[in-house]
Amino acid sequence: MAVARKSLVGMEETLAIIWRMLKDDKVGVIGIIGRAGAGKTALMKQIQARVDQEPESLNFDEVIWVRVSFNENEKTQKSILDSLGLSFSDNYSYQTRAAYISKALSRKRYLLFLDEVLEPFDFGEIGIPYPDPENKCKVILATQDMDVARKMRSSSLLDFEWLSTEESWELFLKNAGWREEQLPEERRYVAERIVKMCRGLPLALATVGRAMADKTTMEEWEQAALDLDYLERRNKDKMDTNLFYHLKFCYDSLKDDTLRSCFCYFSLFPPDYSIRKDKLVHYWISEGILDSNNYDDFDAVFKLGIDTIEALKAACLMESGEFEDSQVKMLGVVHQIALSETAESIDFSKKMEKLLVRAGSGFTEIPCFGEGKEEVQRLSLMENNIEALVSKLPTFPNLLTLMLQQNRKLYYISNVFLDSLPATLRVLDLSHTRIEELPPSVGSLIGLRHLGLSHTSIVALPVELERLVRLKHLDLENTVYLRVIPRQMISKLRDLQVLNLYQSYGDWEVEGCGVAFEELECLERLSILGVTISTKPALERFVRSHTLPKPAWRICIKDCKGFTSMKLPSMFGSMKNLRELCISECYHLEESRIGGESEGEQNWSLPKLEKLSFWKLPKLRIIHEGVVAAESFQNLCEIQIEKCPELKKFPGIVQLQSLGKEIKLQWKKKIN
């Protein structure tokens, strides 16, 4: 059954049609078909929002959103498992994960959103029980290809046509910030020309409308119409959707080169790749796109980075990622603009230059790139299947950035490989790999500013790291096997602004082997600190420090013996920049308190805390409420509790919610 879309501006009729389908037990799979920029994802997000607002109307046990990767069913499985809150090992086979998914979903009535389905796949192979009248489950999939929807046995199809002239006009004016009755006649004529060139594409109308909102004079509007006309004629063969030149116009309309450079940087990542906002900003800072040397306060340049992300989102050139509050991504069609611009640039300060992106290409080893690559400055080989880096990297004498993260099979890096990298390299990212050690030759990369080793199996840091005196950012988050950090090594990295050891090394101040907090106190430029603390004396020493509480952004208290009670205000209340706090594997902890014990105990606040986690605390019985100042917990949006079998009472959450705070309380289940 094919149903044409009635209105994209309001979407009321289309939403009503889909809502009736969701209530119809005979309808299992709903296919939404339309070209890039037609509004498929926007429609599905509105459906999801209504389901969230009216959960009792449909009574789904689970609502899952998955962006389907091309020919990457394992990534689809991972997204589903993550959405279900199920832990799993990367060593699990494809079939084992499918069995876990099937077992979990067979007990639930689910609604599954599948965005950007490029090729058909079998639900059963991934582990998804096929929706039928008996289980009353639903799948809504978005695709550009009618055949894909049919091969996936869609029982209902919505074929998106482009917007009518009236709908196009309404959407453009809405994004340009004009009401029809306010629009002067001479400007109306130019606006009609611009709307006509958008050809009914919602994404084009939204992005061009946003760009026009910043143009105030009649001359600017007339020039915009001329620019669009020129771009249309110049790029008419580049994309069959005609979106290319609209997005190019929006890119050109960005207010300065910093915004354009930040936008172009995203071309290093695969299309639709979700990245944490803070990680993206740190890349920009390490690369020098955002120059922290121009700011007295690192928080100011970090805020500039967040504002830059919001500006790019407002221009419709970025959007929220898989985790909406903390991540961003770039649609595939927008990603083509970023790649096009970087390919034509001359210098990174004027966008980006000499970029080579082979992300997600299925390589098992570093390919031979052929001749003419000597001028490459940025190389992205992330999300491949590379297992070992043994030989020399092909000659890239001007290489500044090397992205190797998420090569999940990568277990070995040789001295020869690192020796072949130029000393001018600024960014090296090896995160989300299986490497257990770094060879000593890493010390030869004296120009390195950013070293990413998060989510690796690294056991010890080589002493040669102390030579990286220009290093600004060292990311060791979630390196749970890290046991050895050479003494006096960290204190020699005097330029460090970001040091992330969250869910990592925790043997601070341990006599005979532990690194002393004095080494961190020597880092005068340290502005962001993630730390794991595993002993009670170390925690007390950290809290007493005159310098370390200020840069503390993320703290994990792990395997701390001697605590039966833990009061958050007295321990962490002075840490005004703390964003995330995790209390983990403290096996004697019986109670915790989130507020003060009396009205007089109000000299504390955690105004920036966003996430609070309690994990693997077998004796924890209660999380008390307490006296909470108005400014405390004002940014807290998520509390995670997992493996706390004795926890029966949590009056603290009721208290926080009574203060008008919207807090997501998440209980995760572990696969045995």
The shape is globular
CATH class division of the domain at 2-159: Alpha Beta
Uncertain stretches of 5 or more adjacent residues: 1-10, 345-352
Give the % helix. 25-40%
Rounded radius of gyration (Å): 26 Å
Q: What integer is the average pLDDT? A: 83
Output the CATH homologous superfamily of the domain at 2-159.
P-loop containing nucleotide triphosphate hydrolases
Strand content: 15-25%
Termini Cα gap = 43 Å
> How many distinct helices?
21
What is the CATH third-level topology name of the domain at 2-159?
Rossmann fold
Structure description:
- Residues 26-164 form the AAA+ ATPase domain.
- Keywords: ATP-binding, Nucleotide-binding, Plant defense, Repeat.
- This is AAA+ ATPase domain-containing protein.
- InterPro entries: AAA+_ATPase, Apaf_helical, Leu-rich_rpt, LRR_dom_sf, LRR_R13L4/SHOC2-like, NB-ARC, P-loop_NTPase, Plant_NBS-LRR.
- It is a single chain.
- The chain has 672 residues and is an alpha/beta fold.
- Among the domains are: 2-159, Rossmann fold (3-Layer(aba) Sandwich); 165-252; 269-338, Arc Repressor Mutant, subunit A (Orthogonal Bundle), CATH 1.10.10; 565-672, no CATH class.
- It is 31% helix and 15% strand.
- Strand 18 (498-500), helix 18 and strand 19 (528-533) form a beta-alpha-beta unit.
